[in-house]
Design goal:
By secondary structure, the protein is of the alpha+beta class. It contains nine helices and 15 strands. α2 crosses α3. The radius of gyration is 20 Å and the shape is globular.
C-alpha cells in the first residue's frame, strides 16, 4: 500500500480520507444535526452491517432526514472501504467504520454558494483503539453516576443514534474528575439507570441478567447479540427499570458496544468493587461471543500490552 492513503466516501464519491471536508455551513457542523452508526470489522470483515444500516434507516425516519443512498449501496461502500483500508493496519488489528448523515446545509449561512440543500452522507474508517480498551478488559470499567441526567425521551427519541454529544461530553468530563479512566452512567429524570456514552448496561444477580428498558435507551446491536447468547446458554434475561441501588447489589455488571463488544464493570462511584473482574457469567458470554465470531476480542485488546 506504499504511496497510497486510506479512502472514505463523501456524497457519492470515494476519495482519499485526507481530502474529506465538510463546509462550515453544514448543519452537522452548525447544529450537530447528524445521524450516525459505528460498527467494526472482525478479522478485517465488516460485522453486523445489515443490523447497523437498518437501525440507521429507523433513525433517519424518526429524524426525517431523506437520503438518496439505499441500504444496499451503503453496504457496498462499507465493504469497499474495509477491503481497502484494512491494508493499512496490522493483520491482528481491526477497523471501526463510521457512517453519518447530516441534515444538510444552512442556506442562510452559505453566502449563495449553493442553490439547494441536501443531506451530507459520509463513510470512513479508523483503526480500533485496542490499547485503550485493554485496560477495560484487564481491570474493568469504573462507572460514575454524575448529577447530569439523560435527555428525556419526550425531548429526543432514544432510538435515534445521533452525534449531538455535548451532554455526554460533559457527563464524561464529570466522571473523569473522579477517576481519569472512569465512564459516566446517566440516570433519567425518574432516577433510573440508562446507559453510557458508548454502550448498554447489563447487571447479573443469581445468574439472571437485566438491562434498562429498550424504550428508554438506544436499542443496542451488541445488546441484542448478548440477549441471543443468553438464550443459547440458558441464562435468564429481562429488560427492567433499574435504580442505582440495584447496581450496588449485584454480583457482576458489564457494558456492550458494537466496537469493544463486552467489557466488565469493576466499580461504581468508587464504592462497589466486584469480587472478580470479569465475573463468571461475563467471562462465559465473552468466550461464547468470541467463539461465535472466530475472534477472541479480549485477547485482541490485551495482547497490545505485550
Amino acid at each position: 500500500m506504499q504511496g497510497q492513503t486510506p479512502i472514505c466516501y463523501l456524497d457519492g464519491e470515494v476519495i482519499p480520507f485526507e481530502d474529506a471536508k465538510l463546509p462550515i455551513y453544514d448543519l452537522g457542523v452548525m447544529q450537530g444535526a447528524t445521524i450516525t452508526e459505528r460498527l467494526r470489522t472482525v478479522r478485517h470483515v465488516p460485522y453486523l452491517v445489515s443490523e447497523h444500516l437498518l437501525r440507521m434507516q429507523e433513525s433517519l425516519r424518526l429524524a426525517e432526514f431523506p437520503i438518496s443512498e439505499t441500504l444496499s449501496s451503503l453496504s457496498d461502500v462499507i465493504h469497499h472501504i474495509a477491503e481497502t483500508n484494512t491494508g493499512f493496519i496490522p493483520k491482528e488489528s481491526d477497523l471501526t467504520i463510521v457512517v453519518f448523515v447530516t441534515a444538510g446545509q444552512a442556506m442562510g449561512d452559505a453566502n449563495g454558494i449553493i442553490a439547494e440543500t441536501h443531506p451530507t452522507v459520509c463513510v470512513y474508517s479508523a483503526p480500533l483503539p485496542l490499547q485503550k480498551w485493554s485496560r477495560w478488559h484487564r481491570d474493568g470499567v469504573h462507572l460514575v453516576i454524575p448529577e447530569r441526567r439523560q435527555i428525556p425521551v419526550e425531548c429526543l427519541d432514544p432510538r435515534i443514534k445521533m452525534r449531538s454529544r455535548l451532554h455526554w461530553m460533559l457527563a464524561d468530563q464529570a466522571a473523569r474528575k473522579v477517576d481519569p479512566h472512569a465512564m459516566a452512567l446517566l440516570l433519567n429524570l425518574d432516577g433510573h439507570l440508562t446507559e453510557t456514552s458508548s454502550g448498554n448496561l447489563f447487571i447479573v444477580r443469581d445468574n439472571q441478567l437485566k438491562s434498562p428498558p429498550r424504550e428508554k435507551t438506544l436499542n443496542g446491536i451488541s445488546q441484542h447479540v448478548v440477549v441471543e447468547l443468553c438464550d443459547r446458554l440458558g441464562l435468564k434475561f429481562s429488560f427492567e427499570e433499574l435504580s442505582p441501588s440495584d447496581l450496588m447489589n449485584v454480583e457482576e455488571a458489564f457494558l456492550t458496544s458494537s466496537t469493544y463488544c463486552l467489557v466488565p464493570v469493576r466499580a461504581v462511584n468508587s464504592q462497589h468493587c466486584f469480587s472478580s473482574t470479569p465475573g463468571p457469567v461475563t467471562r462465559r458470554l465473552q468466550e461464547e461471543w468470541s467463539q461465535q465470531i472466530g475472534l477472541d476480542f479480549v485477547s485482541q485488546c490485551t495482547s497490545t500490552d505485550e
